[in-house]
């Protein structure tokens, strides 16, 4: 251990002896799971920054819109509304495919491995 690690360890042990950690919120409870645990470590910080700033990659936004439209379609009873929703879904799916083709993302091995995990994130 380097000097700083030893100093930190000593201060932590002293704080424990002094009872400074006795009133910590959530003491004795399991830690919350990291929602980004399935994202590779080297991408985690960038996705956390994007998520916290409210930014969604265009392909993720399109996937969310498609999912919402499909949910609406499930509960739709009017035939005209169903046709409009089906048309909008087709348009969004086409837009999504064009975006993937434009970015060559379909062929990317990283996209294939992580796309479903990233989409779940947002």
Task: Describe the structure concisely for a colleague.
This is DUF1992 domain-containing protein. The protein is an all-alpha fold.
Plain-language structure description:
With 122 residues, this protein is mainly alpha-helical. It has a domain of 65 residues. The protein is built from five helices and no strands. The mean pLDDT is 83. This is DUF1992 domain-containing protein. Pfam families: DJC28_CD (PF09350). It comes from Gracilibacillus thailandensis. InterPro entries: DnaJ_C_subfamily_28, DnaJ_homolog_subfam-C_membr-28.
Highlighted features:
122 residues; mainly alpha; 5 helices; 69% helix; DUF1992 domain-containing protein; DnaJ_homolog_subfam-C_membr-28
The biggest beta sheet reads: none
Order of helices and strands: HHHHH
Terminal CA distance = 40 Å
Low-confidence parts, pLDDT < 50 over ≥5 residues? none
E-strand count: 0
The share of residues in helices is 55-70%
Number of helices: 5
What fraction of the residues are assigned to beta strands by DSSP? under 5%
**Structural classification:** mainly alpha
Gyration radius (Cα, Å) is 23 Å
Mean pLDDT: 83
> Which outline best applies?
elongated
List the helices and strands and how they pair.
Elements: H1 3-17, H2 41-53, H3 58-75, H4 79-103, H5 109-121
Domain DnaJ homologue subfamily C member 28 conserved: 7-73
InterPro entries: DnaJ_C_subfamily_28 (IPR052573), DnaJ_homolog_subfam-C_membr-28 (IPR018961)
Protein name: DUF1992 domain-containing protein
């Amino acid at each position: 251990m380097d000097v700083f690690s030893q100093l930190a360890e000593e201060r932590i042990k002293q704080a424990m002896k002094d009872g400074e950690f006795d009133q910590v919120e959530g003491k004795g409870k399991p830690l919350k799971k990291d929602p980004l645990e399935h994202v590779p470590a080297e991408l985690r910080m960038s996705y956390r920054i994007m998520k916290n700033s409210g930014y969604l990659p265009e392909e993720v936004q399109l996937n969310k819109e498609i999912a919402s439209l499909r949910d609406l379609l499930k509960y739709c009873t009017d035939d005209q509304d169903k046709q409009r929703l089906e048309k909008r879904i087709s348009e969004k799916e086409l837009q999504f495919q064009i975006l993937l083709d434009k970015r060559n993302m379909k062929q990317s091995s990283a996209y294939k491995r992580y796309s479903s995990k990233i989409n779940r994130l947002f």
